[in-house]
Amino acid sequence: MIVITIDTLRADHVGTYGYFRDTTPRLDEFADQALVFDQAFSGMATTLPAHTSLFTGLAPLEHGVLANTTRAAGGSAFRSSGDVRLFAEMAHDAGWETSAFVSATPLEEHCGLAEGFDVYAAPEGFERLGEETVDLALAELARPVRGPRLLWLHLYDPHADYSPPAGFDLFETDAEFERWLTERAIPDSVLDRGRRFHTRSAINRYNGEVRYADAQVGRFLDALRASSWWDSAAVVIVADHGEGLGQHDWRQHGGIFREQLQVPLIVRFPGEGGPRGRTAVPTELRDVLATVLLRLDPALAEPFAAQATGIDVLAGPVVPRALVGQRTGRDLGSEIGPLYALTNDQWRFHHRPDEGDALFARDADPHELANLLEQRPEVADELRGELLRILGEQRTLAEQLGFGDASRASLDESILSELEALGYTEE
Questions:
Q1: Record's superkingdom (predicted)?
Q2: pLDDT digits (tens, 9 = 90+) for 289-310
């Protein structure tokens, strides 16, 4: 299995997801041979919690990693236990050779995700260019391996601050870009922690970073395709979260708007008969490995599925399902408190204890510009109840798994009070 995670890659800045700029020619080419998930979401728009969900099959509130260890007050690393283990640990114990090549400090070895990897290569500084990380991964790919292998490649290039390498500052403001900005009500600039963020130049540079990351993915895929692994490998390409880029007055990420939580997810299953095309099945990061493993190694899928709350989303007909995202409010220096989002087949509901709730039509208003809370209060009430039920179930599981303290600390007091009234939490 090859897992490629691209940090901070907005789904709507990828060609196969409809972006008008040629930012991702190599990803688009790969998507033509794979299955594209059109409704994939992260449980948190934060690097470490999102990756922990991917590799444990659990929601952030369930596994208890609710901030980056080095970037947030109270950040905590993942710790394996008898009840919850990383996929790499299971693969290693099953005889797989395991290697990881990550590009930034939030995923350095002490974050907890290194368990189970024979090789875990992180940068010495805060981050490194994608080509350096890909070079390491290519050397590993070329090394002879007798049995199955897991290789995880993480690229950080689209993350702020946006500084595309030479030859990749390719995009300029034009009429089509202006239309794109207007459709999303993106202002000329936003104020972010006392600094003025000019959206046009920033998005142009962000797109250059995306194009660079795409080229590095292409380098790796070329080598993989030329190797003996291509026919038998499952290849997963996914982002951990998106990016605000000035939309809804957010410069970066960590919030709950669609552009921050929706992620590109493209999977190539092994063999000629694997699923191809597109699917609109609601999918979370915790579902990814549960879905892929059943079609790659059913024996290994069994213990992973036993701990995961993520599901095989391709097991049958598409069933309406509510997806939950959250923000803990634990970012270093942030004045924004906890936020919660619920997405179903018709609506996106935001629970915002500090500023009031919001309700958006999922498909008719994909950019979340028209708050329908006052027009449809009965829908908001129903979704608020569904959100509380899901948070309550996740909170209960976290207690059972030994992660209750972290989960409780991430919940707003008003949410905790409502959950306690419903019998989901204990003092």
A1: Bacteria
A2: 999 999 999 999 999 999 999 9
